[in-house]
Write a structure and sequence with these properties.
It contains 4 helices and 2 strands; from the N terminus they run ααααββ. It is found in: Nucleus.
C-alpha cells in the first residue's frame, strides 16, 4: 500500500487515511529523505461530532473484557497433563 498525501486527494478517494499513516515511512509524501519538519495534520471535527465519537468510544470501552477465557477446553486439558519445568513445557526424560 502506497502512502499518499491526504491534502491532495479528495475525501472520497482518501478512504479515511491521514498523514499519520505516512509518518512512519519517512514523511507525508512517502519520501525517505524527508527531514520530518512537515506538520502532522489531524482531522478537525465539529465539537458535536467529536463529542459523539468520544462518547461512543467510552461506551465500547466499558464492554472490553480483560479476564482470561478458555476457548478450547480440549487444548486446556492437554496442556494440564503435559510435564513442565519452571512453567514451560518440557520433554519427559
Amino acid at each position: 500500500m502506497y502512502c499518499t498525501d491526504a491534502r491532495t486527494l479528495p475525501e472520497a478517494t482518501n478512504k479515511g487515511r491521514t498523514n499519520l499513516d505516512c509518518m512512519s515511512r519517512g514523511g507525508a509524501s512517502g519520501s525517505s529523505s524527508g527531514t520530518g519538519t512537515e506538520p502532522i495534520i489531524l482531522p478537525q471535527y465539529r465539537p458535536g461530532i467529536r463529542k459523539a465519537k468520544v462518547l461512543r468510544y467510552r461506551e465500547k470501552r466499558k464492554e472490553w473484557k480483560f479476564e482470561k477465557t478458555i476457548r478450547h477446553s480440549s487444548r486446556k486439558a492437554n496442556a494440564e497433563t503435559r510435564g513442565r519445568v519452571r512453567g514451560r513445557f518440557a520433554r519427559r526424560t
